[in-house]
Structures are given as C-alpha cells and as structure tokens.
Amino acid sequence: MAIDRRKAFLYGAAIAARLLLFVAFPSLPDLLTGRVEISTPVTSFKRLQEGLYLYTHGVSPYDGGVFHQAPLFLPLFALLPNPSNHPLVTAFLYIAVDLLSAEALMQIAQTGESVSSRLFTSPRKDLRWAEIDIGAAFLFNPFTIASCVARPTSVFTNCAILHAIAKAATGRALTSMFALALASYLSLYPVLLFPPLVILCFDRRMRESESKSPGAPVSFAFFYFGILAATIAGLLCLSYLITSASWEFMSSTYGIQLLLPDLTPNVGLWWYFFIEMFDSFREFFLGVFWLHLASYVGGLTFRVRKQPLFVITTLIGVFAIFQPYPSISDSSLYFSLVPLYRHIFPLMRNTFFAVSALLYATFLGPAFYYLWIYAGSGNANFFYAITLVWSLAQSAIVADSLFAVLRDEWEVERPDMKGKEVARI
Fold it and tell me: What is the pTM of this model?
C-alpha cells in the first residue's frame, strides 16, 4: 500500500504543532480550559474531570449539578491516566480525534460533491482546492488548535458529524446514520441534520447505481430514520447501564440544552437574553429560540435541494451561531467546510466585512471578558456586545455563501445573466 507523502507530512506537522503547545506550555491547556469562548457547561473538560471523579468513586456524576456530558465519556476517560500527572496521554487522544476529523474532511473533498451533485453541476467546478489543502486548512486553523489544546468534548461531536457527512458522500448510508446518531447522542442538535443528510445518502445511492434504484425517497428516509432512532435508543440504554440503572443523565445532559438552567457566559446569544428575561416569559422564549433554530432545516433543505452538502454546511454554520451553548469549536467545524466551496468565492459580496468583523471579535473578545470579570472596569454588556459582533460575522459568511450558491444555480438556469449585477426590487 503506497503512502501518501503529502498526507503523512501534513499529519506529522499537525501532531508536532500540537505536541509543541502541550509540552512547551504545560499551563496552556488548563488556561484554555477555563476560557468561556472554548469551554461551555456542556463541553468543558474541567467539568468532565469533576464528573469522572464522582464516577470512579461510586457516586452518580450527575449529583453535583456540574457534569452535563454524555455518560459514554465516563468509561472512556476512566481508562486514561490522570491528566494532571500524565497530560500527554489525553493530548494524544485529542490529537487523534483531530486527525480523524481531517481524514473525514478530505474524504468529503475527494468526492467532489460540493461542485457536482446528482442534480447540479457548477460551471465553476474546476475552481476548487485539493483535499490536502482543505485538510491543512482545518488542522492549522487556530480555532481548531485551541479547541484541541483546551480539550472540550465538542471535538468528538465534530468528528462524528464529519464522518457522518463523509460516509453519506461516499454512499455508505448505514454508517452515516450510525455516526449521526453518535453525534446526536453527544450534543443533541446534530439530529437536525438528518433531512439533508438522508437526501445526500439517497442522491449518492442514485448516482452510484442507476439500474438499481434505492427505492422511493419517502420509504428510504423512513428506513434510515428508523436506524437513526434505534441507534440513539441503543446508546441511551447503554448510558442507562453505565449510570447504574438511572435515567438521571437525561435531564442533566439534554434537559440543560432544552431548558437552559445554566447561564454561564459563552459566545452565543442565549445566555444574556435569558439572564434579563422575566421568569413568566422564560418558557415562551425558550420555545421561540428552539423553533427559530429548527426552522432553518426545512427551508434550506427545500430551497437548496439540488445541493444537500451545502445545506448541511449552512446548517452547521447556523447551529454555530444560534445553538444554546456554542463555542469556537463549533465555528471551526463550519469554517472547515467552507473551503469546499472555493468555486463560489468570486460570487461572494461581503468577504472583507465578514473576515474583518471575525478578526475584530476574535481579538477583542478576550479583552472585553477580562475588563468585565477581572479588571472590573466593564460589565456584561461589554462581552455580550462583542459576542454579537462575532455572531454577526458568522451570519455574514453564512448569508453571503448562500447568496453565492443561489447565484451559481441561477446562472446555470439563465446563462445570459452571467456576470450581470442583481438588484433587489
């Protein structure tokens, strides 16, 4: 079996860069673990350690009201030595997850699904980056590296999502549903990716075998929805056994995301809004916020039906903005998928504004948090204002890429309009 030297060099450089940070700056992982931009109540490595301590001492990890992660993390990390004494073992685990994510991303790029789907082929399909370049963009993204060093559990969710997309793009629908079930079990919101993902599976199956139809689309979707539901149910039952025959983890793991009892600051939009919210309106606005998050799924899936991979990419960007407990790890997942659409970059109109706002929020976010929490010369409005800029920058990228894809499709339908300005009436 021939070894891809470029890929081997890329992986070696990525491993070396991460190990250098772990070894040369031993206090950096704990410093980043405490950053609210990276760690949230549902992904924090520090909270995982507290839950693991209770679990290994025969106490329910959910008794303290601190641990909110999936129970399957407990036996996994219980096998590893204490990260305080042997930090490199945990470091290698997170590095391996990053490499697995990069491998899945390169598989997605290799399929060419982003430029040529079953129902649409872009006239700019030759304008694309090689899969090794896309893998490098992911592995050396500062947000990805910071997430690896800070060790949040969101990197496992990201890895599962990327593998679900990769398997769907290569026609392995069953494995894709297993990966999506794992991601949904870990973080709840990935289950909303099912509609575009099953469409991608169906389209890929149709392309691979024109003579052997995968069946009616509705029956195909229901069949794989059943597999998804059964896999999630199996994971929940396994969690029930891990937690000593208790369903307590359901409210602690998924209830916290649905009901938002922990209002620890993060880079999202929910925490400040619900701090200021009167209790009598809380249930109503929780429903509104969740309905708003879920409403994008149907509209995007229907409108951009010809390109299900782009629907998945856009939804991941939307989730990185509007989910209850987002972090830069969620943003890094979206930014890793955007380079797949290199061919639409010339059609995007607000690239400079979006990138400038993103850099502005990236550098000023920690400063505003410091002014609020440590210096005492600011208040919560300082940090929330910069998170609004952060969300605005991501929203600009999502909206601009959506415009570019729709423009790309429109120019195929109307070749005479290629290169002409579009004015809103």
Answer: 0.95
The Cα 167–Cα 164 span in angstroms is 5
pLDDT tens digits, one per residue of 280-334: 899 999 999 999 999 999 999 999 999 999 999 999 999 999 999 999 999 999 9
Burial of 421 (0-12, 13-18, 19+ CB in 10 A): exposed
Burial track 350-372 (b if 16+ CB lie within 10 A, e otherwise): eeeebeebbeebbebbeebbebb
Block residue for tokens 């249930």: 283
Residue with tokens 């899969």: 131
Nearest-angstrom CA–CA distance, 83 and 421? 57
Rounded to the nearest angstrom, the gap between the alpha carbon of residue 228 and the centroid of all alpha carbons in its chain is: 19
Give 366's contacts (C-beta < 8 A, 6+ positions apart). 35, 37
DSSP tag of 46: H
Asked whether 214 and 202 are in contact (CB, 8 A), the reply is: yes
Four-residue CA torsion sign, 253, 256, 261, 264: positive
What is the distance between the alpha carbons of residues 105 and 140, in angstroms, rounded to a whole number?
Answer: 14
Closest CA relative to residue 187, chosen from 123, 236, 257? 257
Sign of CA pseudo-dihedral 29, 32, 38, 41: positive
